[in-house]
């Protein structure tokens, strides 16, 4: 007869004082610990072994716009068809800020209308062009206009590359709107 069996689970625990013994009365083998046993009080709630973490996201962390250093705009340079590179300052990411602006200005449902203004269909805004189908606000801007003006309020490029930067931003925002939903 085997006097003791060591399970692989017990051998993996470092510093474990548990051991398995063979009892002569036919009872099943049990792990014993040299530490005093801890009994649960029926009135106390069962607590997790890990520290209690707050679940979920922080309130408003994905829709809060981070402002650059007071009175300064972040310099960008167009790079390729859908990217920018930073000219000097690296602590402020344009991709995160564009995502926040797009989420904040999301138009929700848009109406497809015919030439007479009759609503044919109501659907969710899933493309960049849908941001321009929203009604204009008091200042005469659609959601798409507000996204672009907010971006250029935070960032700047040299005058020589402004048209190229507008084209790159248009391509980048078109891709980013599609990626928001995935």
UniProtKB/TrEMBL annotation:
Residues 18-27, 35-53 have a biased composition (Polar residues). GO terms for biological process: transposition. Residues 1-12 have a biased composition (Basic residues). Residues 1-64 are annotated as: Disordered. It comes from the Eukaryota. This is Uncharacterized protein. It comes from Sorghum bicolor (Sorghum). The lineage of its organism: Eukaryota, Viridiplantae, Streptophyta, Embryophyta, Tracheophyta.
């Amino acid at each position: 007869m085997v006097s003791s069996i060591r399970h692989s689970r017990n051998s993996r625990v470092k510093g474990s004082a548990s051991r398995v013994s063979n009892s002569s009365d036919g009872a099943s083998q049990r792990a014993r610990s040299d530490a005093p046993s801890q009994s649960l009080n029926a009135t106390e709630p069962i607590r997790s072994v890990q520290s209690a973490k707050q679940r979920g996201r922080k309130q408003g962390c994905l829709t809060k716009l981070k402002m650059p250093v007071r009175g300064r705009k972040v310099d960008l340079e167009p790079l390729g068809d859908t990217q920018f590179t930073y000219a000097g300052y690296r602590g402020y990411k344009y991709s995160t800020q564009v995502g926040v602006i797009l989420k904040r200005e999301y138009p929700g449902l848009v109406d497809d209308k015919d030439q007479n203004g009759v609503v044919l269909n109501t659907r969710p805004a899933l493309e960049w062009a849908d941001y321009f189908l929203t009604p204009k606000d008091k200042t005469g801007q659609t959601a798409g206009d507000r996204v672009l003006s907010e971006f250029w309020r935070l960032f700047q490029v040299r005058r020589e590359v402004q048209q190229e930067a507008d084209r790159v931003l248009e391509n980048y925002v078109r891709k980013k709107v599609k990626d928001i939903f995935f």
